[in-house]
Amino acid sequence: MGQNHGLSRRHFGSAALGAAGLVFGGGIARAAEPAQTAGGPLGPFYPIIRPGDDDFDMTQIKGQSGRALGRVIEVTGRVLDRKGNPVTGAELELWQCNAAGRYAHPGDVATAPLDPNFQGFARLMTGPSGEWRIRTIKPSGYDSPIGWRTPHIHFDIKGRQARLITQMYFTEDYATNSKDSLYNMLGEDAVTAMAQQQADAADRYRWDIVLGES
Questions:
Q1: 34-210, which class in CATH?
Q2: Is 103 known to be catalytic?
Q3: Is residue 5 very low, low, confident or very high in pLDDT (cuts 50, 70, 90)?
Q4: Which of 105, 135, 149, 163 is an active site residue?
Q5: Where are the chain's structural domains?
Q6: N or C: less crowded end of the chain, CB within 10 Å?
């Protein structure tokens, strides 16, 4: 299975035509191929102790009546190959800090409290059209040994041929995104790692993931 962990910068020609959704070759118009999603580091807080509940709803743990603290959000998207075709049956693992900026990980020495009602990790499989969905809380930013980390969610996506480790960011956090060294390393590729806030619902986001496979 191919690896795509790097933060390499990719340039795509005919930017104006690509933005319009068309490129031309031999006089025939065709849909532009989507930009591959930028990779990122696995990070120090990949879960080593998996929760018993790892479904799409991270705001509540099965068997417990409480709800996670923080602003509840929903993120939907599709996993696509580099030609824009859906990747059915892709496996997604995702993890994040809670609303206070703390990971449920023994290596996190932050003094912020843990949230006993926050799942913090989910494992998903994409459907027939490559679709996936999570319900979670908006993660907090936090100080780290490498400096400020803007709000983000970690993803590990395994497709048919390729694997992508990346981090998803939020468009509305532009002020703090610019203070994050890992985000800044993405350069112009940062746009591919941004969840788009939906115009009709502030707590709903859309993020399509493009793997390096055909």
A1: mainly beta
A2: yes
A3: very low
A4: 149
A5: 34-210
A6: N
